[in-house]
Amino acid sequence: MDSPVPSASSSQEREGMLFFLVFAITQWVHRCNAAAMAVLEAVAFAPFLSGDAATSLPLLAGGVMHGFALASLAAEELGRRMERRRRIWVVERSGGVWRDLQRVGREHDKVFVRFCRLPRPLFFEVLGRIAPHIPRAPTNFRNPIPAGQKFAMALIRWVTGGYYRQTSHGMGMGLASALRCNEEVADAIISEYGHLLRWPTGPRMQEVANAFEAKGFAGCIGAIDGTHLYIDKPKGVRGECYYHHTGQFSVVAQVVCDHECRITSVYVGCPGSVHDSRVLRISELFRQVSQGAGVFSEGDAHLHDGRHVGRYVLGDQGYPLLPWIMTPVGRTATTAQERTYDSCHSSVRSCIERRFGRLKAVWRNFIRPHISNMKTICKEVMAICILHNLMIEHRVDFDPGVLDSSSDSDGDGGHRRRRRRRRDGRRFVRHMPNLNVEPMVDDDPTNGSALGELVRRSLIEHVDHHVAVHGAPPPCPWR
């Protein structure tokens, strides 16, 4: 029996469906790849030439595949060009130290503290507050450096005092980024935690006063002293102004701390050749006292004989004797009462000396000479003092091995330091007659006062009575 012959209507229907399919594929390819349209337009004339739409399907498929091949080659070439352009802007670094700091575990936590000094919980607590102050917008060539990486970079720089190039390479960032990290992180810390460098108030102030009064100094609220931050010879300024008598260049930092070694006042930026009394005279603390403002104009204390004294701080003989700065009698002490006062004064004031020792042992960037920008060193010192108070507030203790000076030494650095100390000692003796002496005029308010002498005479009698009743304080009463 003969097979059925397809009708003309069914043939036309198949031709219409095939045309619709070809039209849809053509539009889709046109949207995805304009390069393949040239081939498809040529294929579109095939039905008119051959008269059979079925024979044009292989040509149509070949055109689509050819378009995909062209698109793949173009994308691959574009990727290679973008990769070459990106490497011009950003050098790929391994960032091994930064990856190691992100590891979690008991032993890794010890490594984290050794590099950053802050325990991991305190690190992330501080990071959560300063991160909004150090953002960076992404660019076409790279993503911004994470805030945690910048924070860790600044801490490691302050902890080790190493070269920027070495530290930045270990942290997986460029030299310019590392230089910006110090200032950005310091500004963020000061902005968020600047209130920690203020005098205590209310019950906290009374607690500080009671602690010093228990050692025989009623009315005392802290100890004041200055320390030198050694730097290389600064550029763009008069280098001789920063020359210290030890033979190095330095910047002076004036610090006041309480009985728990919390820093309450900081003034930094004076050249190393400036005397302590001159630093005091130009500091913000002296300006407030001269205007009758601040904590020294509030409150008083009672001595054993009923006399009143105002608030004051303890300073060494480099400071003038003022009603709010009590200095030791020194070499002119002739009576037993004066010698007892000097002994107790040295014992109680030891908190500021130990504070400097602990501060420079933890943050070694300020114990060794280093290249520093004079515009940022003040911010860095302020940030370090804030972090120091945060560590006291969170009761962060360090393993003696972490604070061992030999743990981060560079080769024969110990021998060089000992040799430099011997050389500096000889230089110190040779220049002793001209040791940071500034001529004082008679009307200089920082050249001592009669009222300060009267207050100290009253304190000498009070301390002698306190020692007779309660005994002398130990050499380090706050340990």
UniProtKB/TrEMBL annotation:
Source organism (scientific name): Chara braunii
Taxonomic path: Eukaryota, Viridiplantae, Streptophyta, Charophyceae, Charales
Basic residues: compositionally biased ranges: 415-425
Cofactor or coenzyme needed: a divalent metal cation
Ranges of residues in domain DDE Tnp4: 224-389
Keyword terms: Hydrolase, Metal-binding, Nuclease, Nucleus
Family statement: Belongs to the HARBI1 family.
One Pfam family this sequence matches: DDE_Tnp_4
Protein name (record): DDE Tnp4 domain-containing protein
Cellular localization per UniProt: Nucleus
GO MF: hydrolase activity; metal ion binding; nuclease activity
One Gene Ontology cellular component annotation held by this UniProt entry: nucleus
